[in-house]
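Fold this sequence, please.
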Amino acid sequence: MKSLYHLLGVMLVILLSACESSHQVDGGNVKKEKIQLEFLSQKLETERVFNQLIQEFEQQHPSIDIHQVVVPGGMTVLKTRIARGDIPDIFITYPIEQDYLIRAERGYLLNLTQEDFIHHIDPHIQNRYLVNGKMYGVALTQNAVGVIYNKELFNEYHLAIPKTWDEFIMVMDKLKAAGKIPLLMPNKDANQTSVYNLNLVANEINNRYWGQDSFSLLKDQTWREISEKTVKTLSYVQANSFQDDYFAVNRKFANGEGAMYVMGTWALPEIEKYNPALQYGIFPFPATNQPEQNKVLGGVDIGLAISADTKHPKEAKEFLAFLTEKKVAQRLSDYEGSISAVKGVKMNKQQLKLLNEKIVEGKSVNWPNHYWSGGTAAESDFRKYSSQFYYDKDIDAFLSNLENMFNQYKHSK
């Protein structure tokens, strides 16, 4: 009998040890290990504000730890990680584009259709995430691209905000004649500099264009005009534009080294970080000579999905629900200057007034690359060919490269 008692005692000790190994002991109190969730983002400019929001969420949910991982080229990193089965719990995803559609259809994304927080979002934006009647992402913010301009320089040279392409060129001519740099471009950074010609593409090519079976850009006068406008613009940029990346141009603009900068709202926190006192504004990009036809380029900027393989779907959804709360979404919008997708959030950044007016009027257009076949790979190729074109200004080579690229991805679907 003593042997039996001894055996039972040993077994009890082993059992208690096993239980304790999965808990932390703090001051005599046994605590469960925290649930760990990884949030993958490519948005360097929102890393700080998300760290603040994550800290607040963790205070409200002491059993959950959110680890934000911010990497440049995050969409490519995500694609690689999905391919090797190492999917982060939460990650940024864009609606409409091919990568999102494929992931939704193949079961990589958690179905969020029935979640209450979906109803916090403006349905006109949120419905872009519909795939076969189901939602696999939630929109938090929209970006918008415009011409960021130095108000002091415009006032000094008595320049009015241009509303047409010709007026845009006239303004740059006047600035150049005055010895100023009319336009800054981050031509070292293909990911950001291609924003410029995407603006022209979005304004002059209808999204239905991408549904055709084949493409013939070399014979397309619209594509040629877009390319000619791009070449024209390059005559007004800083001398060392191919040595300047996105962050260098943000600093230069903040320091008053250039009069204008065509970029998205995501650049504003960076610019203000370098010079909080800068007097600047943003006006809609005047892509054509018909002001009423010019549209603001933009789309979902921060939209989040949850991996279908996450071990903690309940906690991941709690984090998304937190981010879609009106007061939280307002803080994100105020920090970044983005246009919130959450109902009731106000646009408080005065610099965005002109862009916001256009968007409210319905004069906005989604990113054309979201409609292309090829997803992230096609976007990367477009940026590469655009960067080469900015350097050599060879219109025929550029259009030939794009024509082959679009046809290749279209036929490999």
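The mean pLDDT is 91. The first strand starts at residue 23 and ends at 26.
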